[in-house]
Design a protein that fits this description.
Its main location: membrane. It is a multi-pass membrane protein. There is one protein chain. By secondary structure, the protein is of the alpha/beta class. Helix content is 51%, strand content 12%. The strands form 4 sheets. Strands 8-9-10-5-11-12 form a 6-stranded mixed sheet, with helices on both faces. Strands 4-3-6-7 form a 4-stranded antiparallel sheet, covered by helices on one side. The protein is elongated and about 120 Å long.
Length: 742
């Protein structure tokens, strides 16, 4: 026989429930499930939630699975986080001062630290929403980051436990999700496509596509965005869904795999009252499906407050209140500042906290009162510590509890692995193999790009226009000495243009940076998959650009080499685009701002052109700068096209009197030049006529110092540079996107 006892809170409002089972073995599973359902329904009425508590969040799970979910309790004790404050450098600091011998004075020179979290403790359980409140700078987001393991190891003191066991970083990544404050979404994808791609990333390959689509459709209905399912997300230049819908889509992306822990940083920020209520109502349904939901929120309305189960008020990193919303009136009444009737409880509390922060003593008195109040409640047994209630899975370790929860339908990405073992956690770090990730990433990127054809159109137009200008300026260059100089100028400008054109790709990753960091922070896909997908998606456009530039300039300028020369010309242009695109992509992984990135790219490419060998011959470059010559990306394509143009041994570029061209003697009459040529001929003891070839293509290559590498070696080195910078880009992502505070 089962007896359900509702424990009253401080003001008589029902806050939590305990179930005493005198003979648990005699109660059937269905009876136990019905009892739990009745308790939850009472709680639903107490908070005014019209949504059925046990409405299935995932239609694939039956009601019995939800009644028998594995209980989880998250507790955190004495969380402390300090950061160093850099002292401003003043003129006084530049003046050398005598060292002090007083050790006490010497200690004051140590760098100052600021406490962002100071011994924060609390606990919550599945089925509940715990909200962290406070003014700007109080430490709300810092506490959420601490619980979500987004603070570097060693910087955070204290413990975070789930069911009494310390949470490991790898386990937390698998069972949790973090929703950032900003809505980071691809603007040209529809709501349905956005959630479907999230399902492709987070749900296992073994799950049929029809099941994934069903999961997405169910999620869309639960999020209340069915009418916007076919609408694009939108941005400043494209009209899309509303702000409240964007926020719910952001939440949907991270709960597609039904995580056990869900962290949200100010999910209602920037939303109107109705939209904020709808968002929190969705979070309530998620919690009731068996998840622990922890949010930071600025100033909840009365309706939103009715959906919250536990509150933590922070002030400058200290806890000033921790408890249920219903206990707020009694707390402040005992503190000496009773909440007036018909006034929003949280607004009053936040106003009082701000007022105390501006006073001489600050909130120290309120912090100390909260400590005494918490101790008094424990002594009076008014707030017993949370423990997992009776369940079909007693005495389980954390890994066993997670595995059992997976077997009941939670954590969809681990369903395949956990199906064979209900007692061991075997959830993989990533839901899919690398080739599935690459395919999905490529598909998403190409779909988003295809709906913004103007971006590629601008790049193509710039390349074609540049080629057209070069073709008309260097139209049909002859084989005279002046023609040789013009060819050298054309090649130098053309090859550098390939790299400058690639600078337009700089904002691509910068725009996706935070989406990438959000998705990889919780193992949606591997960083290597993103790097490979990025290269695969970028390559086809480079082929079009290469063919367009080669077709515009090769015949118009009158370049040599025939069909094979044209083929190599296309290949070296493609290799230049590839190396330039990889170089710019690598820089985008280092530089966080677009304008700063453009400045660096333009400066470095100018240096590459300077040391390419066009402005100054390799033999004339000082020894202390010769290393930059070999690092120049422009050097190798430039030397390759020179060899492609001047490799014909039968072609002559200087004959007879043309030797006087590009010299002061070039202005002399033709007859005078012939007599000078005859005089030179007799002086040298050879016969030099007006038709004698004096300079071949090989001579020009020697004059330019292009003698060390063949054109095919130059091509391979250029391609190799492209792969080299892609590898560097990968390490930038690996080391620079940890997304953790230090």
């Amino acid at each position: 026989m089962a007896r359900i006892v509702a424990a009253d809170d401080d003001d008589g409002t029902q806050q939590f429930y305990s179930m005493e089972l005198n003979s648990i073995s005699s109660v059937s599973d269905s009876t136990l499930g019905q009892l739990l359902k009745n308790v939850s329904d009472v709680r639903k009425l107490a908070i005014g939630d019209e949504t059925p508590v046990h409405e299935s969040f995932n239609q694939d799970h039956d009601d019995d699975n939800l009644m028998r979910t594995v209980p989880f309790v998250l507790s955190f004790d004495n969380l402390t986080y300090n950061v160093s404050i850099r002292q401003k450098l003043t003129f006084r600091d530049l003046i050398p001062r005598r060292k002090t011998e007083d050790p006490e004075i010497a200690q004051t020179v140590a760098p100052n630290t600021k406490t962002l979290l100071n011994n924060i403790s609390g606990e919550t359980r599945d089925g509940e929403i715990m909200a962290v409140l406070g003014a700007s700078g109080s430490g709300k987001s810092t506490l959420i980051d601490a619980l979500a393991n987004r603070i570097a190891k060693g910087s955070l003191k204290g413990t975070v436990k789930l069911n009494g066991e310390t949470l490991q970083s790898r386990t937390l990544k698998v069972i949790s999700a973090y929703v950032m404050q900003d809505d980071l979404l691809f603007p040209m994808l529809t709501v349905e496509e956005t959630l479907m791609f999230a399902a492709e990333f987070r749900l296992p390959r073994s799950l049929p596509k029809s099941k994934k689509k069903l999961r997405v459709q169910t999620l869309i209905e639960q999020l209340g965005i069915k009418n916007a399912a076919k609408t694009i997300i939108g941005d400043e230049g494209h009209r899309g869904i509303s702000g409240g819908e964007r926020r719910r889509v952001s939440i949907g992306i991270d709960i597609i795999h039904d995580p056990i822990l869900l962290f949200l940083d100010e999910p209602t920020s920037g939303l109107d009252s109705t939209s904020a209520y709808m968002v929190v109502k969705v979070l309530k349904r998620i919690a009731q499906s068996g998840s622990i939901v922890i949010i930071s929120i600025h100033q909840p309305s009365h309706r939103v407050l009715g959906l919250l189960n536990r509150l933590i008020f922070l002030s400058r990193g200290n806890t000033v209140f921790s408890g249920s919303p219903a206990s707020l009136p009694r707390f402040f009444a005992e503190f000496g500042s009773p909440i007036p009737e018909n006034e929003n409880r949280t607004e009053f509390a936040l106003d009082l906290i701000r007022e105390l922060e501006g006073s001489a003593g600050g909130t120290r008195g309120l912090v100390e009162f909260n400590k005494k109040w918490q101790e008094m409640k424990k002594e009076n047994n008014r707030q017993p510590p949370l423990t997992p209630p009776s369940s079909p899975y007693p005495n389980l370790t954390l890994k066993e509890a997670i595995a059992a929860s997976i077997s009941r339908g939670k954590l969809v990405s681990g369903g395949e692995s956990a199906a064979s073992s209900a007692t061991t956690l075997t959830v993989p770090a990533f839901a899919n193999p690398i080739w599935i990730e690459i395919s999905t990433l490529s598909k998403r990127s190409m779909l988003n790009s295809r709906r913004q054809p103007e971006l590629f159109g601008i790049r193509l137009a710039s390349v074609v226009i540049t080629g057209f200008i070069l073709a008309t300026v260097f139209w049909r260059i002859d084989n005279s000495p002046k023609g040789v100089q013009e060819r050298l100028g054309f090649f130098a400008f053309a090859m550098s243009t390939m790299f400058y054109t690639c600078a337009e790709a700089l904002p691509v990753f910068l725009q996706e940076r935070y989406i990438f960091m959000r998705e990889t922070a919780y193992n949606a896909y591997r960083r290597s998959s993103y790097v490979l997908s990025h290269a695969i998606v970028a390559f086809p456009s480079l082929v079009f650009l290469s063919v367009a530039f080669a077709a515009t300039t090769f015949w118009a300028v009158g370049l040599d080499g025939g069909p094979m020369g044209l083929l190599f010309y296309c290949l070296i242009i493609l290799a230049s685009f590839w190396a330039g695109s990889s170089f710019v992509t690598f820089l985008s992984g280092i530089v966080p701002h677009v304008m700063l990135g453009y400045t660096i790219v333009v400066a470095i490419l100018a240096y590459f052109l300077l040391f390419s060998g066009f402005f100054i011959n390799r033999n004339r470059i000082p020894d202390y700068w010769i290393w930059f010559h070999y690092m120049s990306l422009v050097k190798y394509p430039y030397e390759a096209v020179l060899q492609n143009e001047f490799s014909d041994p039968t072609k002559c570029f200087v004959r007879g009197v043309q030797i006087f061209d590009n010299t002061p003697l070039g202005v002399l009459p033709e007859g005078m030049k012939l007599r000078l040529l005859d005089t030179v001929s007799r002086s040298l003891g050879t016969t030099i006529s007006s038709s004698t070839c004096l300079t071949t293509g090989a001579d020009i290559l020697t004059q330019q110092g292009v003698t060390q590498l063949s054109k095919w070696n130059c091509l391979l080195i250029t391609v190799g540079f492209g792969f080299f910078f892609r590898v560097l880009f990968y390490f930038c992502l690996l080391l620079g996107s940890k997304n953790k505070r230090r």
